[in-house]
Write a structure and sequence with these properties.
Elements: E1 12-15, E2 31-35, H1 50-60, E3 65-67, E4 73-75, E5 89-90, E6 95-99, H2 114-125, E7 140-147, E8 150-155, H3 162-165, H4 178-181, E9 202-208, E10 212-217, E11 230-234, H5 239-248, E12 253-254, H6 262-266, E13 271-286, H7 291-294, H8 296-304, H9 308-316, H10 327-330, H11 345-354, E14 358-359, E15 365-367, E16 370-371, E17 373-379, H12 383-397, E18 402-408, H13 410-413, E19 427-433, H14 441-444, H15 462-473, H16 477-494, E20 497-510, E21 513-514, E22 531-532
Parallel strand pairs: 2-11, 2-12, 17-18, 17-19
Antiparallel strand pairs: 1-13, 3-4, 5-6, 6-8, 7-8, 9-10, 10-11, 13-19, 13-20, 14-15, 15-16, 21-22
């Protein structure tokens, strides 16, 4: 999900040699070939989530606002991000005004206006449309367009994350063309989904099903025609194959690569490896709706049994960071004084003993005739996730906990009728994608419990809800930081989730590619500025 990245762009670069590989068959001068991990199910952003929304939103579409690489909200379709200082936020934070640029056109030549913003908002809120989340949009009480280039929204109460959530840098959803879609009762199966028209830097040239997407630079793009004329995006799901094709020159770049392959990636001639800590994090979600996890002692004992620091270092070859796991969720409001639980299997065992869980003859603990057993679910397809799951199950067994494992295909894992959103699991391991804004309501608030949101643990605490509301109500960063300190402390006390590590994105790009910005939320956020040395891609 795009709930969503980084910490003001901490960046590590490893520069390779300057050899440039020859183009693969089918590529041409002016084309940049980038391997994608998977083929999208749709090119309608209302149907996308997670890495798909990060990929195709910034390529084909535009947003009201976006983030700069250093984390500032700036205008995209809007001329500027609304703030109290520029008069765009008034009425104590309840009223926001967006003034649209007047020189933006859809890729078919039609003007982008406030009508498109209102239409897209209503499409998101239309129950007939299969959207993954309405978070943020559900805070809007009224939306109006006083003229063709002004949008005014009124909120139920002040909610500062709305700037990033309402068609901004933290949302799944860019703006859609009303003139092409307003006649449909829903957008779930319309022709547009395979042949989109956006207002972003690139337009779809061809979708070769099962093989690749081909995009061409949008000559009507308001910020100017992108420097790279064409993008060729083959679908290469296997990391080993993507690395091999980088080595042979069949592809020029690949994003979100397996961190455990970092040494191999840094050895690829003619390329750079860009490592960026992002607001993604691995975490265990304890399903507190299950009686066994309503017991806080069990949650804490499992967490104490996991040596997340050593485990993270091993599975990610030192790229991911267990000590800053909380930073993956709280970004600029992260409080390093709130410490993660230290690995202490002896304390875990003593805690379970006091709670009445005694070791049986086979080493597994038993209480009132019930074995301490559970199932850990996780998405397949990434070696790091599988290695983490296997190591976690082994670690807790040493404490006397029988944890079996079950892998699901990623699309099944996160589907509406999948195990996470239906609550059909004991413990889940997942690589969460957060937002740059530190609002954690999507993960912790009572009203966001799955299937209504992404609070997968089902955790509900009135004090936490109050803290989350207070933090989000202020537009003063210092006030919010103080509130999020209290939220982090309470999260560590309750442990509905055990945050294992912060994820760093690993991207490999040509050594001569200029204009690539470290990915605050998407590696494609700077795509309009990409160019190869000498002025063109190969």
């Amino acid at each position: 999900m795009r709930r969503g990245v980084s910490i003001a762009c901490l960046l590590a670069l490893a520069l390779g040699a300057c050899t440039v590989h020859g183009a693969h068959e089918g590529s041409s001068a002016g084309t940049l070939t980038i391997a994608l991990r998977k083929e999208p199910t749709s090119l309608n952003p209302l149907a996308l989530e997670g890495t798909d929304s990060y990929t195709f939103g910034p390529l084909i579409y535009s947003y009201l606002t976006q983030y700069t690489p250093d984390g500032r909200s700036v205008g995209d379709l809007a001329a500027a991000a609304p703030t109290p200082e520029n008069g765009g936020v008034t009425d104590g934070g309840r009223r926001l005004v967006f003034h649209l640029r007047r020189n933006v056109r859809w890729q078919d030549g039609a003007a982008v206006t406030a009508r498109d913003v209102l239409f897209t908002y209503r499409a998101i809120m239309n129950p007939a449309n299969n959207v993954d989340t309405t978070y943020g949009y559900d805070r809007v009480v009224t939306i109006a367009a006083p003229d063709a280039y002004t949008v005014v929204i009124t909120l139920k109460k002040a909610f500062s994350p709305i700037v990033g959530d309402f068609f901004g840098g933290d949302t799944n959803y860019p703006i859609l063309p009303a003139h092409l879609l307003a006649s449909f009762s829903n957008l779930n199966s319309v022709p547009f989904n395979a042949a989109p028209v956006g207002s972003g830097p690139y337009a779809l040239q061809a979708w070769e099903r099962g093989d690749r997407l081909r995009l061409r630079a949008n000559a009507r793009y308001y910020a100017g025609t992108p420097a790279t004329p064409e993008l060729d995006l083959p679908f290469v799901p296997d990391d080993s194959t993507r690395i091999q094709e980088l080595q042979t020159g069949e592809v020029d770049a690949a994003f979100l690569l397996d961190a455990s392959r970092i040494a191999q990636l840094r050895a690829i001639s003619g390329h750079r490896v860009v490592v960026t800590p992002v607001p993604y994090f691995y975490a265990l979600a304890y399903n507190v709706r299950r009686p066994i996890f309503a017991d806080a002692a069990v949650r804490k004992a499992i967490s104490l049994s996991i040596d997340s620091r050593t485990l993270t270092r091993k599975v990610s070859s030192g790229v991911y960071d267990a000590d800053t796991a909380m930073r993956g969720l709280f970004t600029w409001a992260y409080d390093p004084a709130v410490k993660q639980l230290e690995f202490n299997p002896a304390a875990a065992g003593a805690l379970l003993d006091r709670d009445g869980w005694k070791r049986g003859s086979d080493g597994i603990r038993v209480k009132n005739g019930r074995r301490l057993e559970m199932q850990l679910i996780f998405p397949s397809g990434q070696e790091i996730t599988t290695r983490l799951a296997t190591a976690i199950a082994a670690a807790v067994r040493a404490t006397g906990i029988d944890m079996s494992m079950r892998a699901y295909q990623r699309q099944q894992f996160i589907a509406r009728d999948g195990p996470e959103l239906t609550g059909n699991f004991d413990v889940s391991l997942y690589d969460y994608q957060g937002t740059f804004d530190p609002d954690a309501s999507w993960l912790l608030a009572c009203d966001q419990s799955a299937p209504h949101g992404f609070n997968l643990s089902g955790y509900c605490d009135a004090t936490m809800d109050k803290l989350l509301e207070e933090a989000a109500a202020s537009f003063d960063r210092n006030v919010r930081i103080a509130d999020y300190r209290a939220i982090q402390r309470r999260l560590m006390e309750a442990l509905p989730y055990f945050l294992i590590c912060q994820i760093s994105e690993v991207d490999v790009i040509p050594g001569d590619l200029r204009g690539f910005a470290p990915p605050l939320l998407s590696p494609f956020s700077s795509v309009a500025s990409w160019r190869r040395s000498g002025g063109s891609s190969r």
